Amino acid sequence: MNVRNCRKCGRIYNYVVGPNICPSCREKMEAKFSEVKEFVRENKGANIPEISEHCDIETSQIQQWIREERLVFAEDSPLGIECEGCGTMIKTGRYCDKCKAALTQGFNPTSKKEKSQRKTDPRENPKMRFL
Questions:
Q1: pTM
Q2: How many domains does the chain have?
Q3: How high is the pLDDT of residue 11?
Q4: Helix, strand or coil for residue 117?
């Protein structure tokens, strides 16, 4: 049993998965998210500080929802957040398309070119290992 204190209200609860907040605070946060979502739908030109002030929620929480891709700015909106990689303005997420592609390429340990240049020793049996 994993027991923790809620980082919002301080109550003790049984932690299962997700953010470090109790179930009642999680329900309140989801209600706030619904309120923010409705406000954004009705006021498409509103920026983050206006949303924060009207809905009585921290700007950091709104930015977290945008980074988690739960909230998205409209394509025609001049608003956005900065890409964590290069700093260009994006509508949702953490990285722009170029930085996502670069990160994806970074996870590939060897390219096709390197694989074709690799020489294999015919005496080496790939199924046998000697220590």
A1: 0.69
A2: 1
A3: 92
A4: helix
Examine residue 125 and state whether it is found in any structural domain, yes or no: no
Structural domain includes residue 82:
yes
For residues 80 and 94, what is the distance between their CA atoms, to the nearest angstrom? Answer: 11
- The HSE-up count of residue 112 (CA atoms within 13 Å, CB side) is 0
Instruction: Specify if 60 maps to a domain.
Output: yes
Residue 115 within any structural domain of the chain: no
In whole angstroms, how large is the CA radius of gyration of the chain?
23
d(CA 113, CA 111): 5
Residue 126 in this model has a pLDDT that exceeds 70: no
CA distances 47 to 63, 79, 83, 98, Å, are 11, 7, 17, 25
Q: How far is CA 35 from the centre of its chain?
A: 21
Q: Which amino acid is at 118?
A: R
From residue 2, how far is each of 14, 17, 19, 25, 52 by CA, in Å? 6, 10, 14, 18, 33
Q: Which domain, by its residues, includes 79? A: 22-106
